[in-house]
Design a protein that fits this description.
CATH architecture: Sandwich
Number of strands: 10
Order of helices and strands: HEEEHEEEHHEEEEH
Largest sheet: 6 strands, antiparallel
Strand content: 25-35%
CATH class: Mainly Beta
Shape: elongated
Structural class: alpha+beta
């Protein structure tokens, strides 16, 4: 009975750890809100979706992409200010070593940003919808950076979103399963050892 209780407790903890919490980083990112992907650029928001029309037609993705192919990034502005300010879009190879936890500070610390940039859309004013098309030549870990720069302000609004191309869909589950199996094996071993020891 104790073994079952331990297993259930560890399984619940693992599910909680694997659940993507709805939190917005101070510098932006992509989160799911009511079944819609939303990118937060400082306090400015836009619906965010990615398409891979050559393979998946009209299927929408939030961040991770299953294939290295032509991808269309779409932002539908939820704030009027975004429709009035220049917005640029950059995709870099993830050389930060931070993976999913990469933030603007990590990107800004890269010595030569241009050398790791695979795509750059210079600032452009787009009413309502901002669209970028990029053909990924290879799978890997990337970071998207969206910058909105109001003309009457020295402050830039920046969103950073790490994503994977060639996404398998397994995420952290293999690691979680390995941890569960290890904990159960240790528990079973410890129980046998205690049962054999003299009272």
């Amino acid at each position: 009975m104790k073994l079952l209780q331990l297993f259930l407790a560890v399984a619940c903890a693992a599910v909680l750890l694997a659940t993507p919490w709805q939190q917005v980083d101070a510098h932006g990112g992509v989160v799911e809100e009511e079944d819609l992907c939303v990118i937060t650029i400082s306090y400015l928001k836009a619906h965010f979706k990615i398409y891979q029309p050559r393979i998946d037609g009209h299927k929408e993705y939030c961040e991770d992409l299953p294939n290295a192919t032509t991808s269309i990034f779409v932002m539908e502005y939820l704030h009027d200010e975004l429709a009035r300010v220049p917005v640029d879009f950059r995709i870099i190879r993830d050389v930060t070593g931070k993976g999913r936890f990469a933030r603007w500070e990590d990107v800004a610390a890269i010595d030569d940003l241009d050398s790791v940039t695979v795509f750059y859309q210079p600032p452009v004013v787009e009413p309502d919808v901002f669209t970028v098309l990029y053909d990924f030549a290879e799978e890997g870990d990337f970071i998207g950076v969206v910058t909105a720069a109001p003309a009457n302000s020295t402050r830039q609004h920046i969103a950073v979103f790490p994503f994977e191309v060639g996404y398998t869909g397994y995420g952290y589950w293999p690691l979680i399963v390995a941890i569960l199996v290890t904990l159960l094996a240790l528990y079973a071993f410890n129980n046998r050892r205690l049962a054999r020891s003299p009272a």
